[in-house]
Specification:
By secondary structure, the protein is α/β, with parallel strands linked by helices. It is 34% helix and 23% strand. It has 2 domains: 64-276, 3-Layer(aba) Sandwich (Rossmann fold), CATH 3.40.50.150; 308-405, NAD(P)-binding Rossmann-like Domain (Rossmann fold, 3-Layer(aba) Sandwich). The protein binds zinc ion (ZN).
């Protein structure tokens, strides 16, 4: 495969998680009769533009047409995106005269924040179920992948956009060149493109390799993004580090020669990345080795608990849980069940291992000895909700970077 930013064909692999099922395609009872497809999950480094990326691209239609992840389900994201809309409205003086477009708009949470200030909003969302949900909720949403036709459709109806956002989707897109070309078409010359993605150095620091799954094609740091935008006739003028997904970067870009001065945050983070070894393959290689070590520790912990006759369940079934559970070879014998508060996931199963996903009432019906918090980035929120079980003696465990009892 060639690098999606610079075309380099000599990518160097540094982490292989083997064959893994699609993280967000949780089979229902009827689906269990069919075998769930698995695809290689391996990450490689490009020495030219410094982008870390998956070596295998699964066709997006297989992953994004019916999406179970609803942004508004978690309080953390409700707060985050409401706050983000406030921030951006203030920074770029958005109001009744403005148009905001969100790519991968999910259930329209961010756009609702803009609407509060009278901004005209359009969402673009490929998942049929989510687009329907947003439209029903008063957030106009085009049910499609963002492409040239969609950009033209929006321009014809509303004119060009003041702001285009894409949160936790830019890493999901293989052909980011054509996405940015279409963003440029859609944006006013004074417009801004804001994109938030999981930050690869946060992943390295916290060893959160479970964020590696087929949807996440790119693992961004600022360095390759600056390179990328520059080659697309755009420039990064500001960057912020934010807390979502265990650490993300919010990157602001404008058309080359746009009105915004380059903020100090850009050279500062670039220098910091250089110091951390963003340009050296060994940085990535060492990360890979630490992941294999974490796998060993987690397997040992689970095996020991089973030997002591303890029952283990998982809490939270985000996409990353599929990677984590596949990587630690979890079966129905290791995890009795998995709890998720999203009703769309309840009644479904983990692919391949077929561990059942249930509502939290099961914690009362079949009380476990150990709860492994698979949605580790929501641990404080989850612990608050489950405080009474802790009082009853249930052990809560964060699985990474090494199993830790809370
Ligand atoms: Zn490259």
């Amino acid at each position: 495969m060639e690098c999606r930013i610079c075309g380099n064909e000599e990518l160097e692999s540094f982490l292989s998680l083997g064959m893994s099922p699609l993280a967000n395609n949780l089979p229902s009872q009827e689906d269990l009769a069919e075998e769930q497809p698995v695809f290689p999950l391996s990450v490689a480094f490009c020495d030219t533009c410094k982008l870390a990326q998956l070596t295998h691209v699964v066709p997006p239609e297989l992953m994004f047409k019916n999406y179970l992840y609803v942004t508004s389900t978690t309080q953390t994201f409700r707060t985050h995106f409401t706050q983000m809309a406030e921030d951006l409205t203030r920074q770029f003086k958005l109001g009744k005269h403005s148009l905001a477009v969100d790519i991968g708009s999910n259930d329209g949470l961010l756009l609702k924040g803009f609407q509060k200030h009278g901004v005209t909003t359009v969402g673009v969302e490929p998942a049929d179920n989510l687009a329907a949900l947003a439209n029903k909720d008063g957030v106009e949403t085009i049910n499609a992948f963002f492409d040239h036709t969609v950009a033209e459709q929006i321009i014809n109806k509303y004119g060009k956009a003041d702001i285009v956002t894409a949160n936790n989707v830019f890493a999901h897109i293989h052909d980011i060149k054509s996405v940015v070309k279409n963003v440029k078409t859609l944006l006013k010359d004074t417009g801004v493109y804001v994109t938030e993605s999981a930050y690869f150095f946060a992943m390295i620091d916290q060893l959160t390799f479970d964020a590696v799954y087929h949807e996440h094609l790119s693992y961004y740091t600022l360095t390759p993004l600056v390179y990328f935008f520059k080659h697309q006739g755009m420039e990064v003028f500001k960057v912020e580090q934010v807390n979502t997904h265990g650490g993300s970067i919010r990157v602001y870009a404008q058309k080359q020669g746009g009105p915004h001065k380059i903020d100090a945050s850009v050279p500062v983070l670039l220098a910091e990345e250089k110091k951390k070894g963003v340009e050296r393959f060994t940085t990535y290689q060492q990360f890979g080795e630490r992941v294999y070590d974490a796998q060993k520790k987690l397997l040992t912990f689970l095996a020991q608990a089973k030997k002591e006759g303890k029952t283990i369940v998982g809490y939270g079934v985000p996409a990353k849980a599929t990677t984590l559970l596949t990587f630690c070879k979890a079966t129905k014998d290791t995890f009795s069940y998995l709890v998720d508060d999203n009703p769309l996931k309840q009644g479904r199963f983990m692919p391949v291992s077929h561990i059942p996903i249930v509502g939290s009432h099961m914690l009362d019906q079949k009380k476990p000895d150990i709860v492994v918090i698979l949605a580790w980035n929501f641990a404080p929120e989850i612990m608050q909700k489950l405080a009474k079980y802790k009082e009853q003696g249930v052990q809560f465990v964060i699985p990474l970077p090494e199993p830790k009892v809370l």
